[in-house]
Specification:
It is built from two helices and no strands. With 61 residues, the protein is an all-alpha fold.
């Protein structure tokens, strides 16, 4: 069951970060030069926080 939680959170984070990056680019009015690096940073930061919360609530050691 824990694997399912982590997988669902990962999918939601991926889609959320993609949508956030698109909104940031629209606001700037251009495509970012290092789009993949920005996406990686967004995904890494949010996944570290989200997975820590999942571990805390599920009780994984």
């Amino acid at each position: 069951m824990t694997t399912l939680y982590f997988t669902l959170v990962a999918v939601v984070l991926y889609l959320g970060c993609d949508r956030l990056l698109d909104q940031l680019e629209r606001r700037a009015g251009r495509r970012f030069e290092n789009r993949s690096l920005i996406f990686f940073g967004l995904l890494l930061g949010s996944s570290l926080a989200a997975f820590a919360l999942v571990r805390r609530f599920v009780g994984v050691d």
